[in-house]
Amino acid sequence: MVSAEESEAEGNTPPRERKTYAEIFDECFPRYLAWGMTAEQYWEQDSSLVIDYRKAHKLRMEDQNFFSWLTGRYVLEAINTAFSKKGSGISYPAKPRPLYDEPKKEKTQTDEDREAYENAERIKAKMMAMMAKNKEKAKPESPFGEGFMANRISPPENT
Amino acid sequence: MAEQANIKKPAVPEEERTPKYLVLKGPDGKSYRLEFNRKIVKQMQINGFELDTNRLYLCASELIAGAFKMHHRWMEWGDIERIWVYQGSKRHELLGYLARMFSKPALDLMGDGEETGDEENPTFEIVW
């Protein structure tokens, strides 16, 4: 009989250890328990349930990976803010960044009307301010100085 | 000159796919669900059962009895035999299905469980 060592010395690879299904089940069991599967689900229920648990675990890992990346990004922003010069315009975001793109709201007629009204009001206010400024500039100055007329001697009263 | 052809793997034919379970009709008109779970497969192997796909008929009785265990635990062998005989000429085909179903709990732990067969196979090509 040829031993395993002799067989290996001859260049033959040793035969692989064959596992029974029972051994494979026992080996994989703790992993699925860790992924949230119950013993009953694993041993007694639909055997293909493990596929969904595996997919769920993969999704969880992807989420975890994303959140780790997000944390790193926030930390980076915090460091950038801490080491940036004052007035450089870099600041830490006041609110968390949105995870998903918010769908753009379609403008209704009332929204557009309100916007137009607000724009008109803004322009009106600006115009008024400018006009007031111009009026101030256009006011003729008295050659005798301010308050000249106020210090004028009042005429004698008729007796 | 060798002609090269990229052969797309054909879809897995229905008779080669692994069913989740089988529903047999008995002579009494009742339906019987045949299925394997890990507990039963493990128990069968502990009891010394070994699936030999080349000589299925040698382990047929144990395989059939095991398939009944999940949903009809207390059924006696005589009743099981009667239901099995009632299947007539389809028995051989059913036995093939049962053999694949026996391996399913283990295969589900390894593969992704999809047997569509229409995925491309990038690992080899056939040269005629």
Structure description:
The complex is a heterodimer of chains A (159) and B (128). Chain A is mainly alpha-helical and 159 residues long. Chain A contains five helices and no strands. The longest helix of chain A is centred in the middle third of the chain and has 35 residues. The mean pLDDT of chain A is 81. With 128 residues, chain B is mostly helical. Helix content of chain B is 39%, strand content 9%. Chain B is globular and about 40 Å long. The N terminus of chain B is likely disordered. Classes of the chains: A mainly alpha (159), B mainly alpha (128).
Largest sheet of chain A: none
* Total number of helices of chain A: 5
Level of helix content of chain B? Answer: 25-40%
As a percent range, the share of helical residues of chain A equals 55-70%
Mean pLDDT of chain A: 81
Which shape of chain A, going by the Cα principal axes?
elongated
